[in-house]
Write a structure and sequence with these properties.
It is a single chain. By secondary structure, the protein is an alpha+beta fold. It has one domain. It is about 30% helix and about 15% strand. It has 3 helices and 5 strands, in the order H-E-E-E-E-E-H-H. Strands 1-2-3-4-5 form a 5-stranded antiparallel β-sheet. A hairpin with a 7-residue loop joins strand 3 and strand 4. The radius of gyration is 29 Å and the shape is elongated. The N and C termini lie far apart (about 90 Å).
């Protein structure tokens, strides 16, 4: 018979030493800390990867909207080749556009002459967050159209500013300070001439006021905007 041997280390006890409350708390804190760092890293990487994609999608949508707003009868140029940074030398009151980041405006040309401009602007008083838009304005100061680029308005209410949801945004077509007095650029609830949207007032109110500010910006900077060499900023190619 083989002899049974005891492999228990010298000095070892039959039971593990109990963990104190302080040790348990410390271990939990370390575990949570590692988890928090790991999660924060994942979120940061995800935001970095998606930010560029979101910006690219916005630019693609905006590019499509440019050609939708300006008819072919008013352009023979590539709109994307006549893009300029908003804050050009000689421009004033750029705060009217309420832009919170660098943005570009565009010129439509026919036979080398400027026929219209497309201006970016923001309605900061949106229901949930600022609404980014663009407006096409011809050389007389008349709106060719307005389009929403990004928004997070309430589905079923404020999202009626999308052309796929309603025709409300088309109400700006053909309007100017010659057809509607500046103080009438309000929704009807505020004494103006523009309809609200079913169940929503805050969103259309914000956009109407923002469009009026954009027309004011155009009037103030008409000479620069309609110049074939608008300031010192180069075209974005």
């Amino acid at each position: 018979m083989t002899e049974e041997t005891d492999n228990t280390p010298s000095g070892a006890t039959d039971e593990a030493k109990p963990v104190t409350l302080t040790q348990a708390i410390r271990r939990s804190a370390i575990g949570l800390g590692i988890f928090a760092v790991f999660t924060a890293g994942i979120i940061a990487v995800t935001q970095t990867l998606t930010a560029d994609l979101i910006t690219a999608n916005e630019r693609e949508f905006e590019a499509r909207a440019l050609y939708e707003l300006v008819p072919e009868s008013l352009r023979d140029n590539d709109l994307l080749e006549t893009a300029f940074v908003v804050e050009l030398a000689g421009m004033s009151d750029t705060q009217l556009l309420r832009l919170n980041r660098e943005a570009r405006w565009y010129q439509a040309r026919m036979n080398g002459d400027v026929t219209a401009v497309i201006l970016p602007f923001v309605a900061p008083e949106g229901y949930t967050e600022p609404i980014r838009l663009i407006a096409a304005i011809d050389i007389s100061g008349t709106l060719l159209g307005v389009r929403v680029i990004t928004h997070k308005e309430t589905p079923g209410l404020g999202d009626q500013i999308e052309t796929s949801k309603s025709d409300w945004i088309y109400s700006f077509n053909g309007e100017s300070f010659d057809t509607i007095e500046p103080d009438q650029w309000q929704v009807k609830k505020d004494g103006g001439v523009f309809d609200s949207m079913t169940g929503a007032t805050i969103t259309p109110r914000a956009i109407v006021r923002a469009v009026a500010r954009t027309l004011t910006f155009f009037d103030t900077n008409r000479e620069v905007l309609l110049s074939t060499t608008p300031g010192s900023a180069g075209a974005d190619s």
